[in-house]
Amino acid sequence: MSKKIYITTAIPYVNAAPHIGFALEVVQADALARFYRALDYDVYFASGSDENSLKNVQAAEAEKIPTQKLVEKNAKLFENLAPALNITWDVFNRTSLAHHFAGAQKLWKLCKKEDIYKKKYRGLYCVGCEAFYTKNEIANGKCPDGHENIEEIEEENYFFGLSNYQKHLERLISSDELKIVPNTRKNEVLAFIEQGLEDFSISRSVSRARGWGVPVPGDPEQVMYVWFDALTTYLTALGFPAKQDLYKKYWLENPNRLHVIGKGIIRFHAVYWPAMLASAGLPLPTEEFVHGYITVDGQKISKSLGNTVDPFDLVEKYGVEAVRFYLLREIPAWGDGDFSISRFRDLYNGELANGLGNLTARVARLASDTNLSLPPKKNFTFKKVVSDNLKNFRFDHALVGLWEEISTLNKKINEDKPWELEGVALKKSITPIAQEIREIAFNLGPFLPQTSQKILDQFTGKISAEKPLFPRI
Ligand SMILES: [Zn+2]
């Protein structure tokens, strides 16, 4: 194995149970991990939970339980996404654990002395976003994300000298040395940088953080701003700083360091994080893929609207493959998408039951009638429509392309009418189609791993008719 890639998801707040938006991100990252493994890359895939946020403290207060209890309970729910959605991450890194604290403190200490300084600060703080806003950004007492409890705060905090990195970041991103996909997001980040970067606060008083968070090295009065510590997960997931093996292998000595993130946190990942790493003298991520948001029936997901979609319920009702298919095929990978049950059922019946399921069942039946047997095959390759699109994170385009081939095959069978043939003629007509189904099955591997394996098994050796892959709903 010569090539390597490190793939990460962002780490969500665990103040509530996971929703469909995070399911999208983990399924996308998992498809990439499976794709690169099939290409013989040495892959390390990390996820985790962001547990040091003030939001967790507030959620715990509301539930009247200790914060540690709340984050443990909820982190478990996020960790359970792996068995539910058949996700193959190698590690789920929780940021309230000791090794992560050590990593965040190490990164702090590695930053250049002149980049971290103390300053009295007065600002409008949104707890919902864990971010400061200017007066202009707050309208009618609400932050740009619509949160209401904006507090005016004055305290002495540590600041990070982000302004020192303006030119550096501009060059890195415009040259694609730090590549941001899609291009619209890259331009958004560049526009933000060109407006001028301001130093940002990277600590909070212990009292305002209610004692929750990573202590600032050498200052018992301050804990780290949650983003400073949370971003360090990408290093501590590899064992940084105590354990060097994985960290060396996948961060220091690996040219492919990929973050998969949502559009709402691009500023933290494409501006703050690379600047922090540059200050610490560490390698930066090489690529960031930014997905959009999911609405439900055209409306923003919100607890107050009661329209949250529980990924676990969906899997229980329709099966993991159908859920992965919807997320990867229906949500535009480069933009925003929508979830609706009626669309879910239409896609399931149209593309899985009728398209792929029907093709496989018809051909298996005919092949079994004529005792067709395909010798085992080892060296499958990805079709161009899959490899080109997955390298560009266009999961939806890859699947649309595969389904065009499926419908072409279904059409060909309708025209050839192999069921009117017998013996050698039937075998001759059906063999190339059976072989092509097996090629498609291999190509489905990153997206629908169970279905892929089922079809590969069914179409290797003597082919037999099996139960339908996707019974109609
Ligand atoms: Zn807010």
Description:
This protein is an alpha/beta fold and 473 residues long. It folds into 2 domains: 4-292, Rossmann fold, CATH 3.40.50; 340-462, Orthogonal Bundle (Isoleucyl-tRNA Synthetase, Domain 1), CATH 1.10.730.10. Helices cover 47% and strands 17% of the residues. It contains 18 helices and 18 strands. It has helices at 20-38, 54-63, 67-79, 81-85, 98-110, 166-174, 183-194, 226-231, 233-236, 245-252, 266-280, 311-318, 320-330, 341-369, 384-391, 395-416, 423-444, 449-458; strands at 4-9, 42-49, 91-94, 116-126, 131-133, 150-160, 179-181, 200-201, 203-205, 215-216, 219-224, 257-262, 287-291, 294-296, 299-300, 337-339, 373-374, 461-462. The chain has a 6-stranded parallel beta sheet with strand order 3-2-1-12-13-7, sandwiched between helices. A 4-stranded antiparallel beta sheet has the order 5-4-6-8, with no helix packed on it. The protein has a 3-stranded antiparallel beta sheet with strand order 9-11-10. Strand 10 (215-216) and strand 11 (219-224) form a beta hairpin. The longest helix has 29 residues, at 341-369. The chain is elongated, with a radius of gyration of 25 Å. The two termini are 43 Å apart. The model has no long low-confidence stretch (mean pLDDT 95). The structure holds zinc ion. Zinc ion binds next to loops. Belongs to the class-I aminoacyl-tRNA synthetase family. Is required not only for elongation of protein synthesis but also for the initiation of all mRNA translation through initiator tRNA(fMet) aminoacylation. Keywords: Aminoacyl-tRNA synthetase, ATP-binding, Ligase, Nucleotide-binding, Protein biosynthesis.
